[in-house]
């Protein structure tokens, strides 16, 4: 299947209904997803998101110790992981609130399994492109299919969804300047105004993962006033 590389992604399912978690797990496993994790409340979901760095979260709105909208806002304090709300709250105002916060999709229960899978694949395809498989840099190798950095010292570091998007955009344009606007659009969509500071913060965190000396980068270079450039050794 064309999207088979997506099935290696780490998924976190947050819902307080044990039977629904079992159903979701079964549906996703039958589709080929294997890296699945679950949480039954807001506290567990937040802890799992911090520990696991999932690459997609299915998030219920009504949770026993809070609500999914609040959890989403807490997640956005440290990650840009794509989120799909999966909820029984079917009023237009609820959907508008969820999408207005920046969620990637909003699915109302009950749902058709095939619809759920189609929407999951659509979000994953948008966030994790297949065209760059791996890239060799001075101090590390980036495996885009696994969203993972393998450093020369033997350590392996996971990429967040935003880091993956930025690095894959740079890798597809390796050796060329990628403008600040282009990078912001790749992550935040068609209206990237105001995201430059966020971009700089993500670039700093990326350098901490891929550079031997982040303050003296040799792979992810700043082109003053224009953007950034990724210098690679070899791309498979």
Automatic annotation (TrEMBL):
SUPFAM superfamilies: C-terminal effector domain of the bipartite response regulators, CheY-like. InterPro entries: CheY-like_superfamily, OmpR/PhoB-type_DNA-bd, Sig_transdc_resp-reg_C-effctor, Sig_transdc_resp-reg_receiver, WalR-like, WH-like_DNA-bd_sf. Keywords: DNA-binding, Phosphoprotein, Transcription, Transcription regulation, Two-component regulatory system. The keyword Transcription applies. CDD domains: REC_OmpR, trans_reg_C. Gene3D superfamilies: 3.40.50.2300, 6.10.250.690, Winged helix-like DNA-binding domain superfamily/Winged helix DNA-binding domain (1.10.10.10). It comes from the Bacteria. Residues 132-232 bind DNA. Residues 10-124 form the Response regulatory domain. It holds the Pfam family Response_reg. The modification 4-aspartylphosphate is found at residue 60. Residues 132-232 form the OmpR/PhoB-type domain. This is DNA-binding response regulator. It comes from Candidatus Enterococcus ferrettii.
């Amino acid at each position: 299947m064309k999207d088979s590389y997506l099935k290696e992604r780490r998924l976190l399912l947050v819902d307080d209904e044990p039977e629904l978690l079992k159903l979701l797990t079964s549906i996703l496993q039958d589709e080929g997803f294997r890296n699945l994790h679950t949480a039954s409340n807001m506290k567990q979901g937040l802890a799992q998101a911090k520990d696991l760095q999932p690459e997609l979260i299915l998030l219920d709105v009504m949770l026993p110790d809070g609500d999914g909208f609040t959890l989403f806002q807490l997640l956005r304090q440290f990650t840009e992981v794509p989120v799909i709300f999966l909820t029984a709250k079917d009023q237009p105002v609820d959907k508008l609130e969820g999408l207005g916060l920046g969620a990637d999709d909003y699915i109302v229960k009950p749902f058709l399994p095939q619809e759920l899978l189609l929407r999951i694949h659509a979000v994953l395809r948008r966030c994790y492109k297949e065209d760059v498989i791996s890239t060799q840099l001075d101090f590390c190798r980036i495996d885009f299919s696994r969203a993972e950095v393998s450093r020369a010292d033997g350590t392996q570091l996971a990429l967040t969804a935003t880091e993956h998007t930025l690095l894959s955009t740079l890798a597809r344009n390796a050796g060329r300047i990628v403008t600040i606007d282009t990078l912001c659009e790749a992550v935040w969509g068609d209206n990237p105004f105001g995201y430059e500071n966020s971009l700089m913060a993500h670039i700093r965190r990326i350098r901490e993962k891929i550079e031997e000396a982040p303050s003296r980068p040799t792979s992810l270079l700043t082109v003053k006033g224009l953007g950034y450039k990724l210098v690679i050794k070899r791309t498979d």
